[in-house]
Write a structure and sequence with these properties.
Length: 50
Amino acid sequence: MPELLEIQEPEAWNRLVAAFPITSALQSWGWGEVKRLSGWKPVRFAVYGE
């Protein structure tokens, strides 16, 4: 069963994003932190399993 996990480590998030064939710097941990400065609350989740 799929499991939804919140990713709380920047390195883990960036590795996960980089593993996709099509990605963007806009998906990086750092970009989320930049957006936080303008009022966003970045929340990073991943689904694992089948």
